[in-house]
Amino acid sequence: TGSIVSLDMELLRELVAYVKKGVITIEDIKQKRVFEKTESTLEKFIVNGYPGLIAELIEAMVIEASPTVNDDTPRSPNARVLIIDEINRGNIASIFGELITLIEPSKRAGADEATEVTLPYSKEKFSVPSNIYIIGTMNTADRSLVHVDTALRRRFTFIETPPDLDVLSGISVEGIDIQKLLETINNRIELIYDREHRIGHSYLLPLRAAPSLHKLASIFADQIIPLLEEYFFDDWARIQQVLRSQGKSTSPFVTPKYSQEQIQTLLGDQAEQVATVYQKSSSAINDPASYISIYQAHADQ
To answer: Which DSSP helix (H) or strand (E) runs through 7?
Structure first.
């Protein structure tokens, strides 16, 4: 099941204060640089664990607090945020239960149609206060795990957060433009499979602090290529399409395991009846030209 994280409003307010004073920027929050630029005692697990989500909340709060916002804009005192991480990995009906009704704005405590329920064990009355904001995160690639029904959908606003290629801007590893590399790979995945399975920028973010070929090779060998294996159910022909060189139908990362001569020797007259068997190329993983060839037609060798 998904994990539940309580995000205290005081944490958000402290980050808003840093941003308004110019100590940090929204981008610093996204890139997990808060504790490099401040002496904050905030919980690092929360701040660095949800950088994209927290950055969006802080940006919205900064805008809301700007002088251009009407002073009559309603605000909830002592607001609290509840994050249900990877909500579709749990049984949504069990997670919410009767909360599905209680979380509606009109049914919350103090509202005109306020509703409360009796808790099954303590027998106490329970209602949802108006200052609670609920955020559920969901990986769209895992959408099939649990169907998000209409009853839940109409109680939430769905905001898409696609891979943010801009955060990879300027990262170069031995001449490899990491932003262009991921952009090309994701464009191909969108065409071959669908847009929901594009690879997130977080896989390549460690290269900002350690822009080395060794690190990039490790990310590709241990994370990105295995992820593609899952996406395409070990269909190496399609994986080869995703990682192919520009202007070619082949990929330096995925190569045939047997030559035609070897197949002929092994199978004789039945050689033409077998499908191509692929293998990962260890030499390409450590060759900058292999990565560059994915997005550039004539990479320097």
So the answer is: strand 4-8
Contacts of 106 (CB under 8 A, 6+ apart): 112, 113
CA distance 79 to 132: 6
Where residue 125 falls (left for φ over 0; alpha for ψ -120 to 50; beta otherwise) is: beta
Residue of 169, 216, 164, 183 whose CA lies nearest to 51 = 164
Within 8 A by CB and 6+ apart from 120, the residues are none
The DSSP-derived string for 68-91 is: TS-TT----TT-EEEEETTGGGS-
Region 165-194: what's the mean pLDDT?
95
Of the two residues 208 and 3, the one the predictor is more confident about is: 208
Q: How far apart are CA 288 and CA 103, in angstroms?
A: 52
Of how many residues is the chain composed? Answer: 301
pTM exceeding the 0.85 threshold for the entire prediction? no
Long-range contacts of 204-207 (CB under 8 A, 24+ apart): 204/168, 204/171, 204/178, 205/31, 205/167, 205/168, 207/168, 207/171, 207/173, 207/178
List C-alpha distances in Å: 99 to 3, 89, 131, 136, 143. 17, 18, 15, 14, 22
